[in-house]
Amino acid sequence: MLPNPLLTADQVTLLEQDNIVSADAAKTGRTLSGLGIQPQSTAAILPSYLWQYRTAGQFTRKTET
Q1: What is each CA distance from 56 to 10, 35, 39, 49, 61, in whole angstroms?
Q2: CA-CA distance, 36 to 30, in Å (whole number)?
Q3: How confident is the model over 5-62, as pLDDT tens digits?
Q4: Contact, 54 vs 60, CB < 8 A?
Q5: pLDDT in tens, 34-47
Q6: How close are the terminal C-alpha atoms of the chain, in Å?
Q7: H/E run at residue 14
Q8: Prediction pTM value
């Protein structure tokens, strides 16, 4: 079930350094907020993607009781 190899050499190279926003990037607006993007939690986004995996897919609609 897992890919072979689990990690490629390029992925290992990328994982050798932390992926954080530098002070220079923050000063010049190269951040999410600098681009006008508001981060959202996965809990807020996933339901819009997962609706098709309900028992009857898109035809099963939740009703409020």
Answers
A1: 41, 39, 31, 15, 9
A2: 10
A3: 888 899 999 999 988 889 999 999 999 999 999 999 998 888 888 777 777 766 666 6
A4: yes
A5: 999 999 999 888 88
A6: 41
A7: helix 9-15
A8: 0.43
